[in-house]
Amino acid sequence: MEINLPELRERKNDIPLFIRYFIEQFCRENNIYNQPKIESEVLKILMNYNWKGNVRELKNTVEHLVLFSKNGIITKENIPEYILSQQNIEENLGFDLKKNLESKEIKLLKKALTKVDGNKKKAAELLNIPRSTLYYKLKNYNLKEFL
Questions:
Q1: 134: how many CB neighbours lie within 10 A of its CB?
Q2: Contact (Cβ atoms closer than 8 angstroms) between residue 69 and residue 36
Q3: Which domains does the chain have, with CATH numbers?
Q4: CA distance 47 to 64
Q5: Tens digit of pLDDT per residue, the chain (147 long)?
Q6: Distance linking the first and last C-alpha atoms of the chain
């Protein structure tokens, strides 16, 4: 017998039900008596997120939200950065492939340079590009703080 269960991103309307269930479950397991309320903006962001990790990722995110909620309210500030960054890219850049790729490349350049404490040779090796290409990209994207 085969059961076809669609991915969570294909069942956006189920997300609020899962969130409510996971909040209740996490609070019960951890003796949290006042379940936090979730702002509508947070719910909207979570419903629009592309859940690659499916329900397990959602469950872990809800636990994070409950742990970091303040005054019994889950706000946008409690949402993990990787979820917010996806939302920001989609909202600000739309479907413009060039702008999206540039945004991703800039983030990757910054991340690599930060990881190797600004060492250009190591960053270029990490990114698997020639050092001259790294310098070109830094100048092209006006990343003066890394030059």
A1: 21
A2: yes
A3: 8-83 (1.10.8.60), 96-146 (1.10.10)
A4: 16
A5: 888 878 887 888 999 999 999 999 999 999 988 999 999 999 989 998 888 878 999 999 999 999 999 889 999 999 998 888 877 655 666 677 887 788 889 889 988 998 999 999 999 999 999 999 999 999 998 888 888
A6: 60
Question: What b/e readout covers 101-125, taking b as 16+ CB neighbours within 10 angstroms?
Answer: eebeebeebbebbeeeeeebeebbe
- What is the three-state SS of the chain? CCCCCCCHHHCHHHHHHHHHHHHHHHHHHCCCCCCCEECHHHHHHHHHCCCCCHHHHHHHHHHHHHHHCECCEECHHHCCHHHHHHHHHHHHHCCCHHHHHHHHHHHHHHHHHHHCCCCHHHHHHHHCCCHHHHHHHHHHCCCHHHC
Residue with tokens 């008596």: 33
Reference 78, options 36, 17, 15, 111; nearest CA is 36
